[in-house]
Each structure stands twice: as C-alpha cells, then as structure tokens.
Design a protein that fits this description.
The chain is of the alpha/beta class. It contains eleven helices and eight strands.
Length: 263
Amino acid sequence: MGPVVLQGVGRLGSAILEGWLKTGAVDPVDLIILTPSEKPAAEAARALGARINPPLEALADTRAFVIGVKPAKWFEASRSLLPHLAPDAVIVSVMAGVRGETISKGFNGRSVVRIMPTTGVAQAQGVATIWAAAAAARAVGEALFAPIAETVHLDDEAAMHAATAVSGCGPAYYFAFTRALAQAGIEEGLSPEAAVRLARATLRSAAAGVEGAEALDALIDRVASPGGVTQAGLLALNADGALDQAVESAVQAAVAKSTELSG
C-alpha cells in the first residue's frame, strides 16, 4: 500500500509493529518509524529494512500515518510533521477517546480512520474495532489490521466508547479475573505455582473454545452440567447478579472515561 509511518512505539505501537513483521502485512521496507528512544520492535524492523527517524522529507509519499502516541501528546507530536505529509495521506488513530473530527482538523483536513486494537495484534490474534467517515479511509484501516486482528466495523463513531470499554479494555478484565481465580485456588490449598499455571492455562483453553459461532450460553452449558460442580460455582459467582453488575460497572466506568477524554 506504499509507505506507512508509525509514530510512537510504546506498548500498543510495539504490538502493532510486531504483528506487521510477523505477518508481512506491511513490508518493512515501506515502514517509517518515528520514535524518540530505541525500542526492540523498531530495531527488529530496522534490521529488515525499515527506516527509523529519517529526514522529514521522507514522509512526502506517506499513504498511511499511524498515530501510536499517548492521546494527550498527539497534537504536539504531529505539528512539525504536517508540512511534510502528503495531502492525501490517511491518518490512522489508535488513540482512545480522541474524535475523528478533532484529529482531522489537527492534520489540516486529512481523512481519518479510528481503530481500537488489542495488544493481541502482536501475535496476529488481536481484535480491532474500526470506524471511518470515508470508505477509502476505512479500507486503509482494514488493510493494515485485518492480517493481525479480527476486525469489527462500526457505523457510528459514538459507539467507539463502548467498543473501547468492551474490547480495548477487555483483556485486562480477563487477566484480572484470572489473577483472582489463581488466588482463590491458593486459598483452597493449591501451591502458588500450580494455581497460577492452572488459571493461565484455563484462560487459554477457554479462549480456544470461543472460536466459531457457537452461542456463549451453549459454551457455558457445555461445561456446567445441571446440579454439578461448575454450576455451583457459577451460582456463587453471580449471586444476586453480582458478576453481571460488576462487569456492567466496569464497562460504564470505561465508557465514561473515554467520553471524558474525547471532550
């Protein structure tokens, strides 16, 4: 698709870069990486032909400019680059909470596609929510992320808040539950090593089970026999709707924070 610029190689930027290198979704020789410090993922890309912090004139043919910096710093970080970007470069934002209209204005009216990926893109097993006002920008986002993630397109940008809360934040919720599950196993007599290994392996096993289109209720029923051990645990877990309420509160809080960041 031509030159792709990645600005910022933090946790998410590194994950995206690792996924591209793993799958060949972006040819390393077409990559320009802008980073203020040395990063392992960037150095791996350099070894394959990517350019790191070249003269800004190199940005003239950019087809896609991926913003991987923190939301509070994107405008300051981009100001010096604007005169050098191609007028038809598509701005690809992976920042939570910053509206497409705001980004487009900051980039002198350039087309924007917003994407909320999970860090699983590093293993080409991520999830990426995509929204764009223009079909051409949406196609650029799909081309960049479909090889490293399951892509879900939204018709309404306002739904990005909920998508961020469910998918972008979701892995941390699952990890927190896995940590609590391990701790509960320790309390019931498992060694810390055994409890953590069992909890982590169970998370991987459960993830494998959701491949395909089988309904979530059916997946639960496959494990929880009526009157059995698993059902007893599920009844305790969601006593008086405690689990449902806790998850709803987590998503609501994340939506509220994303909305706050958007101004």
